[in-house]
């Protein structure tokens, strides 16, 4: 019996030891996990610290996106402002410019606020950090996408302008080459002048890849007109020489060949459009001028548009725009002006603005330009380069 009681006691002792060991292990594990878990205050502090850093980085990215967007919008709007010539005056595919206009409008509509965009006012308020981070990241993504669309649209318009400029210059150079191919006297100064004008046009073509999109239109147009005005000098029928190497036909007033502004030339006051306009006593011709240039409109005429001028005017112009028959004189060359709206003299008449009638024999002074009103038409010329034109109902001449 004593052996049985002893064995039973040992069994209980072993069981107790096992239970105590299990309890100790559990307690140790729980204590370890307890020490591994920070208190609520510590947990909140760590989370806020990390989110605050994320917030600052997000605000920085958003601010950069704002700067990129403002720069892209400014470039797009400047290009739209300076590319209206090509888009409005020429009938080739305007899809690139129209798309740029659409992108600009869609960006303005998307953000529904005026440009430039200012940095976010929430940058100093870090409550509800996670929500603000998500909002800023979404806006940053939207602006980056819009900036990309604007940049691509601007590039498309730039490429379109370059293509147009290359076409205009190539046609003008081709016209010059045709003229030189039929001219035998290489010592003629007009040959050198034309070759120089063609070389200048070719230089523009060679530099189109890096050209300023805001000036590529005017640079190409001016260069092409210089070529065509130089080509005009090769017509030798009834021409006479005047200072400066310009050729004049026989029925051009002698005052054109005299350097400087004619004596007794008068100045006319601007009308309420702030334009200086005169008309002939017959009312068939009206001219608008300033120190920048002259344009003359004619109501009734029987002559056709001169071929060289028509070639340039019809390159890419809207159908019928050259039929207005408005001669234009700029410093150094004559061109055909193709208006997109109502010409100045016609508009002034429509609004019944006061218009000076220049009597026959009178000359108006638009230094350096002069215009003579005579019974056989109006003659306008540059008193420095001697280039000009004469226009009446039956004919037009230019030099």
In short:
The protein is built from nine helices and 13 strands.
Question: How is this structure best described in words?
Answer:
This protein has 9 helices and 13 strands. By secondary structure, the chain is α+β, with helices and mostly antiparallel strands. Among the domains are: 2-37; 174-232, no CATH class; 244-398, no CATH class. Strand 3 and strand 4 (285-290) form a beta hairpin. The longest helix has 53 residues, at 129-181. The radius of gyration is 40 Å and the shape is elongated. Residues 1-8, 31-50, 85-93 and 315-320 have low confidence and may be disordered.
**Roughly what fraction of the amino acids lie in strands?**
5-15%
| Low-confidence sequence ranges | 1-8, 31-50, 85-93, 315-320
Please give the order of strands in the largest beta sheet: 7-6-5-4-3-8
Rg: 40 Å
Describe the global form.
elongated
